[in-house]
Amino acid sequence: MRVLLVEDEARLADNLAAALRDGPGLAVDWAADGESGDDAARNLCYDLVILDLMLPRLDGLSLLRRMRARKDSTPVLILTAKEGKDAIVQLLNAGADDYLAKPFDLGELIARAKALIRRGKGAAHPTLRALDIELNTLEQTVRRGGVLVDLSPTEYHILEYLLHHPRKIVSKEELLEHLYDYNWEHHSNVIEAHVSNLRKKLDAAVPGAEPIIETQRGRGYRLSPEPSS
Amino acid sequence: MRRRSSIAFRLIATVLLVEVASAVLVILLAWGYERHSHFRSFDIMLRGRADSVLGAVQDAEDLGDNVMLDLADLHVPPEDFYEVWDGRGHLLGRSPNWPGSAGLEVPTRNGVFRFTFRNHGYRLLRLQGSRIVDPGEPGGGHLRFVTILYGSPTEHVWRAVYGAVEFYAVGMLLLVLITGPLIAWVLHRGLEPLRQLAALAANVSADSWDFSPPASARETAELAPLTGALESVLQRLERSFNQQRTFVSDAAHELKTAVAVVKSSLQLVGMRQRTPEEYQAGYERAIADTERIEDLVAKMLTLARYENTAAAASGSGCNLNQCVRQAVSELETFAERHNIEIAVRELPPDPCSISLSAEDCAMVVGNLLMNAIQHSPPQSQVEIHVRAEAGSIEFTVQDHGEGIDSSVLPHVFERFYRGDPSRARETGGSGLGLAICKAAVERVGGSITLASSPGTGTVATVRLRAS
């Protein structure tokens, strides 16, 4: 999952990005002012936007209003130093999904970020299920038919993304966009290698099982539809 | 509780007091005048009656040319009394109710006298008249002198006087009773604009500064100055209140952000097990972040001190030339690291003593130099000029950097304002440096300006009085 962090305080942004990459393994892009944040948000490749309110060039509230005005429904978590109910009501009414007051707890920020991403994908529970696969986003563990499957972080994120979009064909470009930030050189054959490993590991967990990830040649990947009974 | 003094109350009381005083005066004058005129006519009447008594003195028709009093045709009011004597001291006659010598001290000269008899006031006229007896005889007859004493009670005169005075008194009382409430009502009506103004002013609060006085208040000569003063005071208050509010909100944001940095740095380190090297690096970052809070707090306190306290007494001035040299030597290494040369172009030969204290001067010069170095491209120069003019000293720092956008320039001295915030943060700027410089310079009556043309550079000019 990829997060856009719009924060003008470089040290805080560094810490947040490190924490989001370290903990839940999110891809994080950083924008230091409102206008560049707005430019980045226009790519629509983010699963969450973390937005500071007091920003140079374009303030957070205006950025949020612009996003909502162009029907961008990406979840937005606001970081604010403002106090008082009015400011918070105004934020939520402008389309914010959640807010955290500075100085905040890093653990809480990560939990809220994950919850917002999950909600954004239409999943209320931290455990994602499809077919006989069970993915626990808190422990970052994957089980198939009750058997624990050991996945690399990238494999885990690919599976998480696919589980968030069941039945949808997900292109390699989409996976690249959502799993990597600008700090990475991306090549689609990296994805191919990871998907291949993921498929092998999942299939090896339950001997004789149906392959779980379908490859639609030239279009992308999708989870196998539920076996029609 | 002390009773509040009221202008309306005092005005009404004053007017009523004046009215009552004039009423008393009018009554006194009326009493005097009425008494005088009534008694004047009373005396004339008295003389008339005495004359008619004199008319009743007749020739006695006897041999001795005597006179007698003939009462047959004499008609005087029954309460009056009289007594007639002839020139030889014989009593010719008196009225039946003559009080007698016991009640009356008979005057020995002519005129009007007052006396009291049986608790009644009387006026008594002594009149000496003459009658000619037998005017037909040769030699023109005989002249006979008579003395007439004629008295009459004055009770009804006093009644008339008191009646007139009573009339005036009742009239004045009615006047006071009618004008009192009338004045109160008129004053109440007249003070209405003042009450409206007060009600409007009472509605002003820190959240709603709206104060639009009615046209009536502005057009009233007595209220116009108050209205104007209120408006301008409220406008100034609103401006400074908003400035203060912005400052507090900005300061809160800065402090909370700085604390958030420290907290997140520490939490990041604690998120998982790390190597000793990682812990060491995290520890150093946290220390650096804490130092930034320290710096921010110190700057905010400095700014508050400059803005809230007057400059120290004169005598704490310093030498600008020396201050510039010191600042340049302190920042030389920093400039070299940025590959920039500090060029002191012009220093007057005489020591330029200024009213700024040595500490403040070092702070201002250091801040301006630091800004110039940070905004200069490598391989360029930062130029310093000091010029002494008549009574004032001008100090400029010029860089050849990217300049400041004209939309940003008016705000550079505002607290927490950053031309390019992300950049300023990278260089450790808090957005308070220039605000502190401005406060320090203006505190001693100097001025600080920034002129810039994008692309060619910025010139900071400080003008101070020579001391």
| Most extensive chain interface and residues per partner | A-B, 26 and 25 residues
Q: SSE order of chain B, as H and E?
A: HEEEEHEEEHHHHHEHEEHEEHHEE
Main beta sheet strand tally, sense and closure of chain A: 5 strands, parallel
The residue fraction in helices of chain B comes out at: 40-55%
Strand order of the largest sheet of chain B: 4-3-7-6-5
Q: What is the residue-averaged pLDDT of chain B?
A: 83
Task: State mean pLDDT of chain A (0 to 100 scale).
Answer: 84
Percent strand of chain B equals 15-25%
Distance between the termini of chain B: 56 Å
Contiguous runs where pLDDT drops below 50 for at least 5 residues of chain B: 421-427
List the SSEs and their pairings.
The complex is a heterodimer of chains A (229) and B (467).
Chain A: E1 2-6, H1 10-22, E2 27-31, H2 34-41, E3 48-52, H3 60-69, E4 76-80, H4 85-93, E5 98-101, H5 106-120, E6 127-130, E7 133-136, E8 141-144, E9 147-149, H6 153-164, H7 172-179, H8 188-205, E10 213-216, E11 220-223
Parallel strand pairs in A: 1-2, 1-3, 3-4, 4-5
Antiparallel strand pairs in A: 6-7, 7-8, 8-9, 10-11
Chain B: H1 7-55, E1 57-59, E2 67-69, E3 81-86, E4 91-94, H2 100-103, E5 111-117, E6 120-133, E7 142-153, H3 155-190, H4 192-202, H5 215-219, H6 224-270, H7 276-308, E8 318-319, H8 320-337, E9 340-346, E10 353-354, H9 358-374, E11 380-389, E12 392-398, H10 421-426, H11 433-443, E13 447-453, E14 457-465
Parallel strand pairs in B: 9-11
Antiparallel strand pairs in B: 1-2, 3-4, 3-7, 5-6, 6-7, 8-10, 11-12, 12-14, 13-14
